[in-house]
Amino acid sequence: MTTAQNRIKGSLAVVGLGPGAADLMAPRARAALEAAEVVVGYRTYLDLVRDCLNPASEVLASSMMQEIDRCRTALALAGQGKKVALVCGGDPGIYAMAGLVFELAQAADADLPIDVIPGIAALNACAAILGAPLMHDFAAISLSDLMTPWELIERRLEAVAAADFVVVLYNPKSKKRTDQIVRAREIMLAHRSPTTPVGIVSGAAREHETVRLTTLDRMLGEEIGMQTTVIVGNSQTFVWRDRMVTPRGYGRKYGL
Ligand code: SAH
């Protein structure tokens, strides 16, 4: 086959693996993994889906902070004619690699098919575990200031807190970043009752999953880490039998 024909065959699938459990991965994502000649991804995510990989696929595992290299490698291999799957935890378009792939493809004016295959995001998995906290308008905010200036994050926290959104906090804390969650809670408390329900889920759909229901005033007493998502309720959110629920408004309208 000539190089030109090879090029036509190459493609890149940016695949969302879901939160961790194999049965929470979409069949389309599984099919993309099976069809891939090369699978590229962060080692921890690849380990979660080792059983779904085609034994004939080449697997290129990398460590956490190498997103740009990972995306470049995936694009380069697809450009050489390979069927490549680039895997991301959760959904590839939510704080993951789909955007970076398109930025790099645009910069290189790459001409190849790029498919984004959705996955169940941490916010879906965590909300389902907690009950139904996202039944009304919500906002997701990442507390990671590695690539976003902290002032901008605070401005967004302030705006969504004031507007009574349910708030999903991604990347709430790491070993080095410990102050952000403290500040985020202060901002929420300036607009919400200290008894506002807060759900904290770590390792959702993984072996070590933990779920805690607490309140804004008590939340800092709970363990929060890299694999934790924090959901702060709005002024209507309540807890019933260990489930966190944000009413949609049926009660007010129809009097349940
Ligand atoms: N693309 C992912 C987000 C990656 S950002 C998605 O769609 O969900 C990494 C952050 O996601 C973590 O710091 C944590 O806040 C959240 N997260 C990822 N997996 C999680 C899980 N299994 N349980 C709880 N939170 C998780």
Largest sheet: 5 strands, parallel
Q: Please, how many helices?
A: 9
The first-to-last residue Cα distance is 68 Å
The percent range for strand residues is 15-25%
> Structural class from helices and strands?
alpha/beta
Radius of gyration: 20 Å
Task: Please provide the ordered H/E string of secondary-structure elements.
Answer: HEHEHEHEHEHEEHEHEEEEEH
- Ligands in the structure? S-adenosyl-L-homocysteine
Poorly predicted ranges (pLDDT <50, ≥5 residues)?
none
Approximate helicity band: 25-40%
Biggest β-sheet: strands ordered side by side in the sheet: 3-2-4-1-5
Rough outline:
elongated
Give a count of the beta strands, DSSP E runs of length 2 or more. Answer: 13
Average residue-wise pLDDT = 94
Oligomer: single chain
Q: How is this structure best summarized?
A:
The chain is an alpha/beta fold and about 260 residues long. It has helices spanning about 5-10, 25-35, 45-50, 65-80, 100-110, 120-130, 150-160, 180-190, 250-255; strands at about 10-15, 40, 60, 85-90, 115, 130, 140, 165-170, 195-200, 210-215, 230, 240, 245.
